[in-house]
Design goal:
Largest sheet: 5 strands, parallel
CATH class of the largest domain: Alpha Beta
CATH architecture of the largest domain: 3-Layer(aba) Sandwich
Strand content: 15-25%
Order of helices and strands: EHEHHEHEHEHEEEEHHHEE
Distance between the termini: 31 Å
Number of strands: 11
Number of domains: 2
CATH superfamily of the largest domain: Response regulator
Helix content: 40-55%
Structural class: alpha/beta
Length: about 220
């Protein structure tokens, strides 16, 4: 999910709409509302954020610190001004990148992905769970060394389960991570459909079902 922060409703709503058209869940905040949300939101909600986009606001230069207290997701500032001083001020306050308007949402997504790759430069690039290898850069997983193509939602669910390996996660947590915590157009029960399809494919390929589910408790993957 991409979180957009801007005091102008037209800009905020415009960006969230554009990201959604790209198939990326997004939500927008007024800077004052965002300051309260980022300090009080549940960890699972914060973890669902893939990047923060900061636009025009009197509070803009103070927001990166509040974000960093809760999240390591990329923070990108969108500047309306060509001023070098403002660009340097953004970097000084802790943003990862500064872009100038107009900018296409795909460029913002590409910059966020590049920042995440830099963050992970010293990290393991993949995680193995039995015969399954799940990558952290958006590639399809592999099973026994062969590419295992999955639709984007199912791949992200598998990635989320593997990232929380050994820990049971709820349907709500998965929904928040995949669709965004403020998506009112999609029912939470869609997660069950995605997981059912994913389990069927894994069972056919592996001969076993690596995902354990318990009613009211959620899902867990921990297969050797």
């Amino acid at each position: 999910m991409i979180v957009v922060v801007d005091e102008r409703a037209l800009v905020k709503d415009g960006y969230t709409s554009l990201f959604c058209r790209e198939g990326v869940p997004s939500t927008g905040f007024d800077p004052h509302e965002f300051g309260e949300w980022v300090n009080t939101a549940a960890d699972s909600d914060i973890d669902a954020v893939e990047a923060f986009l900061i636009g025009q606001s009197e509070l803009a230069l103070g927001l990166p610190k509040a974000i960093r207290d809760r999240s390591q997701a990329p923070v990108i500032a969108v500047s309306d001004s060509p001023s070098l001083e403002m660009t340097l001020a953004f970097f000084d306050c802790g943003v990862d990148d500064v872009v100038r308007k107009p900018v296409h949402p795909r460029e913002i997504l590409a910059r966020a992905a590049a920042i995440r790759r830099r963050y992970k430069a010293t990290d393991v690039k993949y995680t193995d769970v039995g015969a399954i290898r799940v990558f952290s850069d958006g590639r399809d997983p592999e099973i026994n060394g062969e590419v295992f193509p999955l639709p984007r939602r199912e791949r992200r669910i598998l990635e989320y389960l593997v990232a929380n390996r050994g820990r049971r996660v709820s349907k709500t947590q998965i929904f928040n991570a995949i669709y965004g915590i403020f998506d009112e157009d999609v029912e939470e029960n869609v997660v069950e459909s995605h997981i059912s399809k994913l389990r069927k494919k894994l069972r056919k390929k592996l001969g076993v079902d690596p995902i354990d589910s318990k009613r009211f408790l959620g899902y867990c993957i921990d297969w050797q």
